[in-house]
Amino acid sequence: MKKALVSLVSCSTLSALLVVAVPHCLAQSNHDSQVQLEGYKVFVSQAGAGMPVVVFESGMGEDLSTWQKVQPAVAKFSGTFAYDRAGLDKSEPSPNPKSVEAMTSELHALLRAAKIEPPYILVGHSLGGAIIQLYAHTYPAEIAGLVFVDPEDGRLLDKLKAQLPAEQWNARQKTLDAMMPKFSDAQKAELEGSKASGSALSAALPLPDVPVVLLTGTLKDPDFPGNPVSRT
Known about the structure:
Low-confidence stretches: 1-5, 7-12, 20-27
Structural class: alpha/beta
Strand content: 15-25%
Largest sheet: 7 strands, mixed
Radius of gyration: 17 Å
CATH superfamily: Alpha/Beta hydrolase fold, catalytic domain
């Protein structure tokens, strides 16, 4: 739910971080499609050419438009792959739960169904960072590199609750509760999955021996309860 942050991440900065792992001067192409998984279809967008393919994983409740300024820049020198998770925007709902484990399995099945060959450079924002961490731990042989963009999982929420005064935590919950009616069922399920993801991420180590980059930003809503603490 921090899409503005990703839009503000410099495309040239991310490109410079990724370019060390991929060749230059590759043809750029665009292709959107629906990929059939078991019982539902997932909307995917591919652009560029070459390997390793850069796979973008959006934040909690967000669709692939999160990467609308980043994917085209990266596609100038490598193949790219972005998608809407099940139930979000153009993808059909899934019968599977919205746990971080299920979303990781969905990504693995999707890449197989779309015939995207490993290894991959995984780029994950917020909850997407949790998904790519679990993916890298579960399928280490498929990973060429990892880029975390303000990653977040249930462990951060646990720490915030422990550190914030009760009135700030309650104000934070009240703000989130006020937003909830605007959420779709899939977004609500992802929020609950994010809250419960701490134990899975604690166990998702070690990571494979590949380049890892962490990108963080400071342009967060200063009026959102608890943000000064979460930024530290």
